[in-house]
Amino acid sequence: MEEMEEELKCPVCGSFYREPIILPCSHNLCQACARNILVQTPESESPQSRRASGSAVSDYDYLDLDKMSLYSEADSGYGSYGGFASAPTTPCQKSPNGVRVFPPTAPPPPATLAPPPPPRNACLTCPQCHRSLVLDERGLRGFPRNRLLEGVIDRYQQGRAAALRCQLCEKAPKEAAVMCEQCDVFYCDPCRLRCHPPRGPLAKHRLVPPAQGRVSRRLSPRKISTCTDHELENHSMYCVQCKSPVCYQCLEEGKHSSHEVKALGAMWKLHKSQLSQALNGLSDRAKEAKEFLVQLRNMVQQIQENSVEFEACLVAQCDALIDALNRRKAQLLSRVNKEHEHKLKVVRDQISHCTVKLRQTTGLMEYCLEVIKENDPSGFLQISDALIRRVHLTEDQWGKGTLTPRMTTDFDLNLDNAPLLQSIHQLDFVQMKVPAPPILQLEECCTHNNSATLSWKQPPLSTVQVEGYILELDDGNGGQFREVYVGKETMCTVDGLHFNSTYSARVKAFNKSGVSPYSKTLVLQTSEDTQSEEQTLPFPVPLERSQLRRMSPFSSTLNLQPSFAGRSYFELRSSAHQLSLHSSLQSLNSAGCNFDTQGTPYSQLVDIKKMVAVAWFSFDPSSAHADIIFSNDNLTVTCNSYDDRVVLGKTGFSKGLHYWELSIDRYDNHPDPAFGVARIDVLKDAMLGKDDKAWAMYVDNNRSWFMHNNSHTNRTEGGITKGATVGVLLDLTRRTLTFSINEDQQGPVAFENLEGLFFPAVSLNRNVQVTLHTGLPVPEFYASRSAMP
């Protein structure tokens, strides 16, 4: 019952409804509160005058007029209008329930026995839906009294064990001291003295204790609802069109005379039944919500328990790492101490040896000096030769590295802590869940002569990180599966299959935590095309662009796209580059049973006799500079920097003939974009061609240049503007690169002797936006040259 209390409180005063009235918007207000928020409007601003004069109103006003107006043939004498003339100049307040309330323009008149009637053009704004209502000459008496709500409030208050409170206290209601049986209001002593003085007509009212008043209120007969237009008549019928109770007098002379009416009792039972049925559904939702709340509360407790356990595990793991690091630290310090002791020993030994040698040298020098002092020539000559030899020998001994330190003071130990620091920075949580099984995309899987292309993806709601995929294929005879691809790509082409054979394929995902279950098994059938005549076959495809990426570890990359946006089909004609495709797909579950609900063993047969081998690709966000901005499925690029930034295509070419175009969508302030090819490790923050990893043509609005390794060659006339098309033709058979602007070849062959792997490349700044177009045939100027012997 406590949850119902908010339904029983007035949105203006925040207390239980007192004499509630029903507004046309079905919301309720206390009659006193409704009188307090009445606003007087001038005659010129009434909704009737605004409609008559055709004055402009806002879109919101027209919306309200169309959806919420009460002025119709079922008009009850009061209506609504979308605007509220005094609302912009009247400050908006909030009631105790948090609902916006428009206060009156003037303070309310003091309480009297009979409040004056409201002005003719008084307006009332519902504080809940903010719908404005215009009162007629009856004022608030024109709104019906909600006696049903009064009865619910009485039963609710009687069922509460709390003491009865005063109904006139504004803030914190005090405990009621008396109840007036005539006024049907509970008073505390201050409010009784102020609002119900014992004099005049009020002296005849009977005041009883609150408990007695509660009993008398409970035993008093329920007041019967009367008609708002005919106050002496009780409601006896129900108007179906106006959806309101009416009296007999309304049917005879009122506006309901031509409306469909039904018996009040029958409609009462019908609406009670409808409300009960609606409550059954709402009760089920409430029951589910309670169960869901229990589940959420259990989750809160489980999360807290798991958090404590996980934190303890994390602390233990980090402590183990710290202990291991401390042990390694002790080992390294031991090595440093050994090196320290070794250096000291070597230096001390050299000090000792040098000290002895120096003492001997000093003694020899002193002896020779004393010999020189003697005056005996014959005696001197007898020993002079030997002394001279000893002096030279001693001098030679000092000169043989004796005075060079045998040990340096530096420690030749350099701690390589970079890998450990990198490992610490990369220390992260490992995904604890295995991935969900991948989903094979049937619309992108096909066979192609003796090769099969398979495409898959993760389930849309899967959040588990995937590190790679494993594709398995059987041997074509229903034998064991074997791994044919392990990697991160989601599309793979397998070559070397047998013609006219049936293969089963399946894929699974893996991460550090484990391997997912297998996907559903896909059965593919290869076939051999024996027709040699040229055929043209329209191939229906969806209107939207669906780009198929074919990436194979077993053969060169081939990108296929069914059609350009806006076309419902395309024609495939035979040419010098042909492929044959005859595909049929059969979907099986892991047990080998067809999982098509219709029981059809094969999907729709797709038979393409001849197909041109062209490359379809887009720009690669993963290798582009961070300033590059992508759109249109990575086919359109621009930049948010004034400096040149490089973006590469997703597909690299090492052989074959390839042609693509770039249309200039935006070209402002005469920038110099560059177009061409590059290695995967080209500089991304400089103009294309500034290093030796790119071969490009950069252009302005008048001229174009070829550039490689910051070397400019072959300046030609012909620039670009908005709407121009730049063509890039890479012929790795002849190892040449050629450019064109608006289908006009720019100079001779731009670059020759190209070998290796090349990626389409563009460099641009924020003043340029280009769109990539791929899968195009070779231009005529080059096709005619290729046809020459």
Automatic annotation (TrEMBL):
Ranges for domain Fibronectin type-III come to: 434-529
Q: Where in the cell is it found?
A: Cell projection, Dendrite; Cytoplasm, Cytoskeleton; Cytoplasmic vesicle, Secretory vesicle, Synaptic vesicle
List the GO terms this entry assigns under cellular component, sorted alphabetically.
cytoskeleton; dendrite; synaptic vesicle
What is the E.C. number?
Answer: 2.3.2.27
Q: In which pathway does it act?
A: Protein modification; protein ubiquitination
Report domain COS positions. 372-430
Which residues belong to any copy of the B30.2/SPRY domain?
596-781
GO molecular function per UniProt: ubiquitin protein ligase activity; zinc ion binding
Presence of the UniProt keyword Chloroplast in the record:
no
Q: Which residues form the B box-type domain?
A: 161-210, 222-264
User: Could you tell me what reaction this enzyme catalyses?
Assistant: S-ubiquitinyl-[E2 ubiquitin-conjugating enzyme]-L-cysteine + [acceptor protein]-L-lysine = [E2 ubiquitin-conjugating enzyme]-L-cysteine + N(6)-ubiquitinyl-[acceptor protein]-L-lysine
Q: Could you tell me the superkingdom of the organism this chain comes from?
A: Eukaryota
- What keywords does the record list, in alphabetical order? Cell projection, Coiled coil, Cytoplasm, Cytoplasmic vesicle, Cytoskeleton, Metal-binding, Phosphoprotein, Repeat, Synapse, Transferase, Ubl conjugation, Ubl conjugation pathway, Zinc, Zinc-finger
Q: Name one Pfam family in it.
A: ANCHR-like_BBOX
Which residue range or ranges hold the RING-type domain? Answer: 10-50
Complex formation: Interacts with SNAP25.
Protein's name in the database? E3 ubiquitin-protein ligase TRIM9
Q: Which organism is it from?
A: Patagioenas fasciata monilis
Gene encoding this chain? TRIM9
